[in-house]
What does this fold into?
Amino acid sequence: MTVREIARLAGVSVATVSRVSNGTGQVSEEMRRRVLDAIEKHGYRPDHLGRALAAGRHGALGLVFPGLSGPYFTELIQGFESEAVPSRSSVHILCTHLRSDSDAQVLEMGRRVDGVAVIGGTISDPALIRLAEMIPVVVVAGQGPGSVASVRAENMAAMTALTRHLLADHELRRLVFVGNPEGSPDVSQRWAGFQRAHHELGLEPPAAPIAVALQQADGVLAAEQVLRAEARPEGVVCANDETALGVLVGALGRGLRVPQDLVITGFDDAPVAALVTPALTTVRQPVRELAAEAARLILRAAGQRGTPAGSLVLPTELVLRRSCGCPDDPATGGS
It folds into this structure.
């Protein structure tokens, strides 16, 4: 069914059908009823893309994630909505789950929204460039290709500082890094910071990380691998808090004391990091602000019919708590 066919069946003009379906303009009650009856009988749905083209806006923004598991993505969604909702824009979320057709899915979404924020590493660079030619695009937690804008937290220097703290201040020597740098710009930079701290102190870092995903269950599996090692490490540096909490559960379940027998650290400073015992040493990053800033860039560009520009890097903060052997600081939320 098209708007013209509904107009013919209802015996009214195309403009009258448009006014009724959009809820705008003056239409007599009799004509309104005829149009609504025809719409209901024939299952007509207005052409959203055509209406958006005429108005110049969809009134919607897109968020593209690899998945939705864990508090990190919850914080991103809340930060994005904090800017989208006041602008009267709905938020459409696409989870690719690392599917082979992720690029095509995101490009299809681009036809239905005013702009998209994409988590770094979720789709290919060529697809990002193509998407940015259609609508405003901002990469979150990663670097955009070419002139595609990005918003990310500082990762390398923060992880270097955390690792130096363990190596120099606590005089640990056998550290392992838990996290998979492949496909994740954030984890790649954190692994690089872990290595750099070793090199700056004249120490040899591990040849490779323990490459697991970033969920708590993967941290438990990593703990089993760490604790089976012939020379058990003194510390486990995790790419995020969820993985660190999994390692903590695995270590405590094996009867180890943290930090006396094994030091564990994370990255993100998720709310639960300060609530576990021992409280988790980590790096605090402004997760909500990452997404909020991305939404602001998209909305500004969409309003000006322009392109978001630049690469914003938001600061992070080292948070020392009991899990590395430091006393808890009440100012950082340690228990």
About this structure: The first strand starts at residue 60 and ends at 65. DSSP finds twelve helices and eleven strands in the chain. The chain has three domains: 3-46, 58-152+287-304, 156-284+318-332. Residues 49-55 have pLDDT under 50 and may be disordered.
